[in-house]
Design a protein that fits this description.
Layout lengths: L20 E6 L5 E6 L3 H26 L5 H8 L4 H8 L3 H7 L2 H4 L4 H11 L3 H6 L3
Helix pairs in contact: 1-2, 3-4
């Protein structure tokens, strides 16, 4: 694709998006060069669908935290686009331990040090972690 052919279809799925990505295209001399792109319609549509699904899942998780079905750890893990495996590695715990920490009764008994570990991973305060959903 030539530099002047790089798609620049505007995004419409996130208010205030100014994100552009780098793609490679051929310049006038036939050399590859990087060009910023806002994407193209098909890609933007697929991205919008993915973010809509994430937003829906996040809303469901918030409700589950409020109902006392899961601990705030699940919400902040999802918000950080992590899975159990990644979170467990960051926390220095086994996956089964992190899964247990997502149970409200277990979460309430976590040590201040473990709460601080999760807060650091999620880049929030312990108060934000323990007070979420209340």
């Amino acid at each position: 694709m030539n530099v002047n052919e790089v798609p620049q279809d505007p995004k419409d799925f996130r208010e205030g998006d100014k994100i552009k990505k780098v793609v490679y295209a051929v310049d006038k001399e036939g050399h590859y060069t990087n060009v910023t792109s806002a994407g193209w319609e098909a890609e933007n549509f697929a991205t919008k669908q993915a973010w809509d699904a994430i937003d829906e899942e996040m809303a469901e998780t918030i409700e589950r935290v409020r109902k006392g079905e899961v601990s705030p750890i699940l919400y902040f893990m999802q918000k950080s686009l992590m899975d159990i495996s990644i979170l467990a590695k960051y926390a220095g715990k086994w996956q089964w331990q992190v899964k247990r920490h997502m149970k409200p009764a277990v979460f309430k008994k976590l040590s201040p040090a473990m709460l601080q570990t999760y807060a650091r991973i999620f880049n929030i305060t312990v108060d934000e972690l323990t007070g979420f959903g209340k």
